[in-house]
Amino acid sequence: MTAVAARFGGVEKLAAWASDHDVERRELDRVFDALTREEPSQEAGPLQKPAVFVEGLTSRPWHDRADHPWTAALEAEYPRIRAEFNRHFDNANLPQHPESVALAATGKWNTFHFYKMGQEFAANLAACPAVATALAEVPGIKSAGMAYFSVMGPGTVVRPHCGFVNTRIRVHLGLVVPPDCQMRVGAEFRPWTEGSCSVFDDSYEHEVYNRSDHPRAVLLLDAWHPGLTAVERRAMAYLMHVWRDRVD
Questions:
Q1: Domain count across the chain
Q2: Residues whose CB is less than 8 angstroms from the CB of residue 57 and which lie 6 or more positions away in sequence, other chains included
Q3: Backbone angles phi, psi at 112, to 5 degrees
Q4: In this predicted model, what pLDDT tens digit does every residue of 69-105 receive, in sequence order?
Q5: Domain carrying residue 124
Q6: What is the rounded distance in angstroms from the CA atom of residue 110 to the CA atom of residue 88?
Q7: Could you tell me the CATH number of the domain that includes residue 189?
Q8: Engineered SS bond to 70: which of 7, 53, 60, 137, CB 3.0-4.6 Å?
Q9: For residue 198, is it within any domain?
């Protein structure tokens, strides 16, 4: 049994959920297999090591944003999103990222959350209407994973790590991008571009560098992997809720 399922009781909880919602077990075979698999999947790519790996989903470290048309709405709202970020970053002490102690080798990593695995931060969304409008176009924004301003201070280095599931696609909308900032996903490094979306699979090993003297900021968000069926999305949304307080 995978570490996530063993620790959080995902198998039993998902079976009960399926029974309560009249979902046949066979419709969730891929999800149950992911929760009970004891060995890494042979389908996983190099440097791809999520705790929960659902087989049969198209897998690559970097994605073309043209394959995800909803990213255009994010980019169209960039000037307003950037203005909202500037207002809150200038006037508030953003909370420390929950993984910063474990993953930030140097520097500071802070966040301003809008969604977390089914939890909605209503006050933050109300304070950032342009963000709320753009996020509303993202498939699964409320339950697929996270959405937040991610701010890495000068000199911040985030160690290599893998996201815990492969059922989501992660997007960074570049907001403030000083020189000498890069992210590696899989084997390839790429910089961010202000006003443009970087789309990737965070179940691949990735690491982040801000070697500049200025903060780097992005709007980070997760969408459902388009290869999931409708019922698999519902099941994963339930599991995300179950795991919300245990996984960052």
A1: 1
A2: 166, 167, 225, 227, 228
A3: -140, 100
A4: 999 999 999 999 999 999 888 766 788 888 888 888 8
A5: 62-224
A6: 12
A7: 2.60.120.330
A8: 137
A9: yes
